[in-house]
Amino acid sequence: MKQIEGRREKNRTFKKDSSFLKVEENVFDVPTLKLLYTLSNKGYISELGGSVSTGKEANIFHAVGKEGEIAVKIYRISSSTFKAMDPYILKDPRFTHIRRSRKDIIFAWTQKEYQNLMRMGKAGIRSPKPITCDRNVLLMQFMGKNNVPYPQLKDAKMSDEDARVIYDQIIEYMRRLYVRASLVHADLSEYNILIDPENFEAVFIDVGQAVTLSHPGARDFLSRDVENINKYFKKYGIDEDAKKIIEKIKHKTDEDDMIEADDPVAVADEGDFDEDASAD
Fold first, then answer.
1. Which CATH number describes the domain made up of 149-250?
2. Which residues of the chain have pLDDT under 50?
3. In three state form, how does the secondary structure of the chain look?
């Protein structure tokens, strides 16, 4: 992959420019900055660029690392609407052990997104490949090219025929998510699906809230996801019955292998990061 101009000192130096320094102060608190330097020293990040996305709980930055172009997702400790995370994480059987402090919930949420992305990749769903996570920082494959992210579904230009192809692909991804990964996205819409313009494929993103099928809200979340997708595609003349789509999503074929367990989270040499250590 083409290297970004300005890489310095054996690919282990941050690109410190005005766009980096002017990002919201609540993103780069001292512990987060120290963690980013640790990830840089481990070779995960060689250059950190500007913000490519700002959400309610996190900011995503373009970066370069040993994997090529990567995305650095930083969950904001001070300003995340972490109460909104409660319904998705506190009843997830994988995270029943966490304490209910803001910091613990955000750290668990970051780990949850990593694990969900791992499951999705194994299930054959186009999504960012997770690289590592630690505390409130998640590193993953950058879904775009040359610093430019793929467009969201809501901004993609499609004919009715193209829309039909994408709709069918999204439903198939939802089916794989359900029967192979035992997950429901729980917040699927035209805002968190990207379109790869080169091969015209859908890409699922923002999966921190995705829940296992054993979650008490999984059924309602699935119905809401289907409703959101059907509502968006109606403008392309696609009018599918929600109940039949849900039946299709739940249908398992002989080719479907369920993913039984999460792999351990790949952290950047756990224990090497000291919150009170110097960032130098």
1. 1.10.510.10
2. 1-13, 16-23, 267-280
3. CCCCCCCCCCCCCCCCCHHHHCCCCCCCCHHHHHHHHHHHHCCCCCEEEEEEEECCCEEEEEEEECCEEEEEEEECCCCCCHHHHHHHHCCCHHHCCCCCCHHHHHHHHHHHHHHHHHHHHHCCCCCCCEEEEECCEEEEECCEECCEECCEHHHCCCCHHHHHHHHHHHHHHHHHHHHCCCEECCCCCCCCEEEECCCCEEEECCCCCCEECCCCCHHHHHHHHHHHHHHHHHHHCCCCCHHHHHHHHHCCCCCCCCCCCCCCCCCCCCCCCCCCCCCC
Which residues on neighbouring strands pair with residue 59, listed in sequence order?
54, 74
CATH for 18-147 is: 3.30.200.20
- Active-site amino acid positions: 187, 206
The model's pTM? 0.83
Give tens-digit pLDDT for 203-213.
999 999 999 99
Domain range list for the chain: 18-147, 149-250
